[in-house]
Design the sequence.
């Protein structure tokens, strides 16, 4: 049985980024997506990160939910986002 969680913090780990709730919120604040911009078109990614995101989305992998959550954070005006508030409850 697989116990690995394909959640937002683990996605950030997979992308080689700081996965703390505050770092995730800061990333979303610093890297906003324009209306209708795909997450893979954001200028914040390096080539390897883009390949990973594109591959996972294309394969409809277990990472898709976390990738979609990140995209929503990047669209949303983030100031103590919902994600950060929830994660702080579990500290």
Sequence:
């Amino acid at each position: 049985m697989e116990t690995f969680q394909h959640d937002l913090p683990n996605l950030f780990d997979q992308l080689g980024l700081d996965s703390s709730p505050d770092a995730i919120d800061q990333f979303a604040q610093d890297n906003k997506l324009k209306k209708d911009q795909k997450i893979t078109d954001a200028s914040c990614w390096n080539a390897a990160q883009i390949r990973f995101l594109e591959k996972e989305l294309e394969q409809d992998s277990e990472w898709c939910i976390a990738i979609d959550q990140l995209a929503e954070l990047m669209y949303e005006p983030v100031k103590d986002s919902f994600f950060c508030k929830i994660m702080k409850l579990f500290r």
